[in-house]
Amino acid sequence: MTTARPVALVTGASSGIGKEAALGLVKAGFDVVGTSRDTSRVTPLDGVAFLDLDVASDTSATASVKEVIERFGRIDVLVNNAGIGSIGAAEESSVAQAQAVFDINVFGVMRMVREVLPHMRAQGRGRIINLSSVQGFIPAPFMAVYGASKHAIEGYTQSLDHEVREYGIRAVLVEPAYTRTGFEANSTQPDMPLQVYAQQRQTFGRVMAAAIKDGDDPAVVAKVIVAAATDPKPNLRYTAGTLAGRASILRRFVPAWAFDSQIRKMNQLAG
């Protein structure tokens, strides 16, 4: 089976940002394939075909892309949205726990990119959209492992974009701030908690819960993803939402000492 319509593959499309992105791409004229680790539990979405995918598995990544090509004959856009949060002080997460987060947030992206690139090169066009975060370019106290994974995605995507541009492919970043999703509830908690960090970790948890409650609707981020997928001349970075835009401007133009002070104030850190 082949289609003349552009085809988008969206990972982690069963809820939140991924779900809204999938629906937004349908409205923009794409045939959309969404993925979930267990599609038997997914509520059907109009215009979205679902596949099982575990981005932490090489075999699963290979099989999912193969199935999309067999069904549609092409992949024009890959949205790497699947990810996991991680909360806790840097010292409180074991290396094994950090590796598990990176296996999804970083190596999961790399697996999917490696699978789609040969097809995009063969067709002479493609767009890879990697979901980063404001915590990919600012400090993330009490989310050090998560922040590190998003910093890694920033560096990877910037380099990838230069490598594939001559083949008609662009790799871009979408950088949301706090979004009203199940991020906090689905984040890993420290597997080596230390009493010395307990009070500040609890404070951070309250700060994050309030920020998510007042955060952007996932549809705001989805709109930016659709723009990143369809812009004829895409930007490398797309901030999503007012807070993300402000954070980007502050990071670029505010003196380092003032920015540092603001980070500590926002996160209610002493000193």
From TrEMBL:
UniProt-recorded name of the protein: Short-chain dehydrogenase/reductase
Keyword Oxidoreductase found: yes
InterPro entries: NAD(P)-bd_dom_sf, SDR_fam, SDR_oxidoreductase
Superkingdom of origin organism: Bacteria
Stored PANTHER family: SHORT CHAIN DEHYDROGENASE, SHORT-CHAIN DEHYDROGENASE_REDUCTASE FAMILY PROTEIN
Keywords per UniProt: Oxidoreductase
Pfam families for this protein: adh_short (PF00106)
Higher taxonomy: Bacteria, Bacillati, Actinomycetota, Actinomycetes, Micrococcales
Homology family: Belongs to the short-chain dehydrogenases/reductases (SDR) family.
Source organism of this protein record: Promicromonospora soli
